[in-house]
Amino acid sequence: MPQSEFRFSDSFFETDRPARQSPRPPAQPKATAKATKTAKASKAAKAAAPAVLNVTQLTRLIKLALNERFAGTVLVTGEISNCKRHNSGHLYLTLKDDQAQIAAVMWRSQVQRLKFQPLDGMAVLAAGRIDVYEPQGKYQLYLDSLEPAGAGALDLAFRQLAEKLRAEGLFDDRHKKPLPPYPQTIAIVTSPTGAVIQDISQTLRRRYPIVRTLLYPVAVQGDAAARQIAAALGWLNRNQRRWGGIDLIILARGGGSLEDLWPFNEEPVARAVFASAIPVLSGIGHEVDTTIADLVADRRAATPTAAAELAVPLLTDLIEQVARCRRQLVQGLHQRLEPARQLLRQAAGRPFFARPGDWLGQYQQQLDERQTLLQQRMGERLHQTSRRLERDTTILRRIEPHQALRRARTALQELTYALRRRLDQTRRRQANRLDAQAITLRMAAPARRLAGDRERLILWLGRCQSACRRRLERQTQQLDHLSRRLDNLNPRAVLARGYSITRRRNTGQIVRADSVLAAEEILATELSDHIVLESRLLGPPRRRKDEHGKDQQ
Questions:
Q1: Domain boundary among 291, 313, 335
Q2: pLDDT in tens, 489-514
Q3: 281 within a domain of the structure (yes/no)
Q4: Distance (Å, whole) CA 487 – CA 490
């Protein structure tokens, strides 16, 4: 979708659309030929619709009805809720009031032209079109423009950006750089056409004609202005050595409306001004105009002409100040020279300066006397040194160092011979001791002892294994015997041979031969494999005689 330009009006941002799409909500439709044709098409569509519709068909009919009913742009006021910025750049939000809400979406191309940041709870005036989002079957508002209700978008954007940059410290005075008092090179960032550059140039030539000025032409109005201004500030900081350094940058523009001055309220321009290592002097608009760039700049001037006046001093004032300093310097030199002249006249009247040869003769005589004394002292010192040298030579001759060296060499040879003899004796004793220990080790024969111990160990292991096997066999036989006895005593084994156990079902007691049973009593007979049979006595039990003549039940 091609991006359309916004045109600012008193109430909202309006997209350039064909004249048939009115920015106001449609009133009652008039009975025109087009409306009649649309109604006939709708009736034809209803007549052609099947009796049973699927979801897609029903949704498309609803979409068609909405498109026919709201064919143009509608204006909606409400409060923003659930505002989310997607990674793709699209904006999704909900407009609501006290009784209803509607989903809305704004595509990235429109979001990029917003001058403020939409936030939850903000009352806005939205312009767009109504349509149905078929995948979810809901109708939503596709926004073309968005404006704060009760306040202009530019004013809100200005306040939002100012609060953000103030929180980051871009307006703090501690970051402000002082302006150079005597700049040599000034760079001017403004439009090459118009009265601003002429006013600044004339003011600089009039006040300080020796300054060198550089013009970096940029657009100061329009969508591309902010980008060009930020790029100009960065380029001048990077390339200032090309002109031997830049002392000051003047960022200037003439007066205008808030929309005309808006490039100087953009965040890229503010951050470029803050990042500039060269001091920036702003002169934007008139005295009542204040932009973000003015707040971030190192110094603000009311107008471009005032910026030029703040940038440079008045050359005539400097010349007058230099002349005044020259007069003060000459006067000070005269004041310093007069005491020096008096001191020189006083010194010229002294005897030393009147007849300097007499003073030099005295010093020459003193020098001769001291030279003679020095020669005498040096002769005495040389004589004493010669006598001391002769005495030391006599002592050295008595000592005869070569004889002492010969005696020391002889003693060293004797000690070397004795040491070698002692080492040979020690080595022989150690060898004899080592031979004796080797003989003792061979007699001990640890290898034979290890072989015997290994045989005994094998014998004992065999005996232990045999004893363990016999003990295990005895325990196994005993366990088999006890298992057979236990099987004989197990009542389950008796049941497996065809016998059964009869119990009273209520008490679980076993019914024996002498047990007394009552009528209607329930008995439980247990067979093998845990089979239980229940039976009820219908009458009193009969007694019968056993083979010995005794009564039995």
A1: 313
A2: 777 767 776 677 788 877 777 777 77
A3: yes
A4: 5
User: Do 135 and 24 share a structural domain?
Assistant: yes
3-state DSSP of 157-205: HHHHHHHHHHHHCCCCHHHCCCCCCCCCEEEEEECCCCHHHHHHHHHHH
Q: How many other β-carbons are positioned within 10 Å of the β-carbon of residue 92?
A: 14
Half-sphere exposure of 368 (CA within 13 A, CB side): 5
What CATH code is carried by the domain that includes residue 214?
A: 3.40.50.2300
Confirm whether 140 is domain-assigned.
yes
Burial 390-421 (b: 16+ CB within 10 A, else e): eeeeeeeeeeeeeeeeeeeeeeeeeeeeeeee
Cα–Cα nearest to 210, from 236, 240, 183, 192 = 183
Domain that holds residue 275: 173-313
Helix axis angle, 267-275 to 225-238, nearest 10°: 10
In angstroms, the CA 18 to CA 325 distance is 74
Checking 92-101 for CB contacts under 8 A at 24+ apart, the result is 93/118, 95/124, 95/126, 95/141
Closest CA to 353 of 362, 342, 345: 345
Strands 74-85 and 91-96: antiparallel
pLDDT tens for 262-280 read 889 889 999 999 999 999 9
The contacts of residue 53 (CB under 8 Å, 6+ apart) are 61
Lowest mean pLDDT among 8-22, 214-228, 241-255: 8-22
- Both 217 and 282 in a single domain? yes
Q: How far is CA 498 from the centre of its chain?
A: 88
Q: Which two tokens stand for residue 522?
A: 């329930």
Tell me: do 152 and 13 sit in the same domain: yes
DSSP-derived secondary structure letter, 510:
B
**Is 282 inside any structural domain?**
yes
Domain end: 313, 330, 346, which one? 313
Q: Are 108 and 87 in contact (CB under 8 A)?
A: no
Q: Which residue has the tokens 């002889």?
A: 410
First and final C-alpha spacing in the chain: 110
Q: Describe the chain by its helix, strand, coil percentages, rounded to 5.
A: 50, 20, 30
pTM, full prediction:
0.42
Is 538 inside any structural domain?
yes
Structure tokens at 111: 């979001």
Residues 149 and 29 in one domain: yes
Cβ distance 202 to 237 under 8 Å?
no
> Do 151 and 22 have their domain in common?
yes
Q: Are residues 98 and 202 in the same domain?
A: no
Q: How far is CA 38 from CA 22, 32, 58, 61, 456, in A?
A: 18, 10, 19, 14, 121
What is the rounded CA–CA span in Å between residue 261 and residue 249? 19
Q: Which residues of 425-456 are buried (b: 16+ CB within 10 A; e: fewer)?
A: eeeeeeeeeeeeeeeeeeeeeeeeeeeeeeee
CATH number, domain containing residue 119: 2.40.50.140
